[in-house]
Write a structure and sequence with these properties.
By secondary structure, the protein is of the alpha/beta class. It is 33% helix and 17% strand. The longest helix has 24 residues, at 278-301. The protein is globular and about 55 Å long. The N and C termini lie far apart (44 Å).
Length: 365
């Protein structure tokens, strides 16, 4: 079975220096941060890649600026082909969007062509679902397991004759938990027989688990949303895509005013270069694992219970922490998130550079 790393090695371009530069950061959640990032602050709130864009992507994006007076007609097929190769599918299985949130919104519109409900986990990534009720879709929230994992059995049981969409985030945001692949495959195989399944794999590239993209050629009811925002460090460039059956891609594309045209010339150049910058991707992956392991170890010393993470963020409980967590973050110019679950005081923090996480630990100690 070819893994993500096998693919990257095959596409390798040789060693490249990992030049680090400040990246514009924005906050979602409840953090109001619409101003340009303050260099004095450490942003650990939006699960951004602190090392990107990659050197090759930066160079390509700068060079492409002079071409921004022209539409990127010829670039889109090239990017689609490259994304298809990365996911080991055909070009007909790919649809580009302005970040994966555009893909999620398009699927929501697609599902809402008939009134019904959405079955989804609670807690999970749900900011994109705000138009659901307006579109005539009610949400059925299914609690996570005690270990903060997606409860596939409960999700399946919650499906009714009125269910138009089942949404599953794997790895899950904000908890960072990962479904067992064989169990997830069995779930998708069964549920997609009668119901549309939207699998959000925004963070799958930060794991060693293989994407379920190989299933789309035979499953018209499976749509996978992916993004360049996380591992590839292009959150602000807004590049996402759907991996789906060719017929499903056509149906989704009919909801776009300009099919595959939502990504700028500059962003397209960055995405193409990012897929080739193997050394940067591998190094970013490793640095994230190291900084994450350090943070979890130090959190546990502070009586901050952590859920094992498969992502570039950590879900943790402040129930036994005796300090003033959010006050300390503010005092040390660290931007965090919020309490997601009052019971257990569960919160989430992004994994930044190791030096950032050391500042965080020192602030909390």
């Amino acid at each position: 079975m070819e893994t993500r790393r096998d693919y990257l090695k095959k596409m390798g371009l040789g060693a490249l220096a990992l030049n680090i530069a400040p990246v514009y950061s924005y906050a979602n959640e409840s953090i109001a941060c619409q101003k340009p990032a303050d260099a004095r602050k450490i942003y650990l709130n939006a699960n951004e890649n602190p090392y990107g864009p990659s050197p090759l992507a930066r160079k390509a994006m700068v060079e492409s600026v002079t071409k921004s007076n022209r539409y990127g007609w010829s670039q889109k097929p090239e990017l689609i082909a490259a994304v298809a190769a990365y996911n080991k599918v055909s070009a007909e299985n790919i649809m580009l969007g302005s970040g994966s949130t555009e893909i999620l919104n398009l699927v929501l519109q697609y599902a809402a062509q008939q009134k019904g409900n959405i079955v989804t986990a609670d807690n999970t990534f749900n900011f994109w679902m705000s138009p659901a009720k307006t579109l005539g879709l009610e949400k059925i929230n299914v609690p996570l397991t005690a270990n903060k994992e997606n409860d596939l059995t409960a999700l399946k049981s919650a499906i009714t004759a009125e269910t138009k969409l089942v949404y599953l985030c794997n790895p899950n945001n904000p908890t960072g938990t990962l479904c067992k692949r064989e169990e997830l495959i069995a779930f998708v195989q069964e549920v997609s027989k009668n119901t549309l399944v939207l699998l959000d794999e925004a963070y799958i590239d930060l794991t060693d688990q293989e994407s379920l993209s190989s299933l789309v050629s035979k499953k018209q009811n499976l749509i996978i949303a992916k993004t360049f925002s996380k591992l590839f460090g292009l959150a602000g460039a807004r590049i996402g895509y759907a991996v789906a059956h060719g017929n499903t891609v056509k149906k989704l594309s009919s909801l776009q005013s300009w099919t595959n045209g939502a990504i700028s010339v500059v962003s397209t150049a960055g995405a193409l270069a990012s897929l080739k910058d193997v050394n940067f991707i591998e190094k970013t992956f490793r640095l994230n694992v190291e900084a994450r392991a350090y943070t979890i170890k130090e959190f546990e010393k502070l009586n901050i219970r952590c859920i094992p993470s498969n992502t570039n963020f950590i879900y943790f409980s402040l129930a036994n922490y005796t300090g003033q967590f959010f006050e300390q973050l503010k005092k040390h110019n660290i931007v965090g998130t919020r309490i997601y679950e009052k019971e257990g005081k569960w919160s989430r923090i992004t994994v930044g550079k190791l030096e950032d996480m050391k500042v965080l630990i020192n602030a909390l100690s």
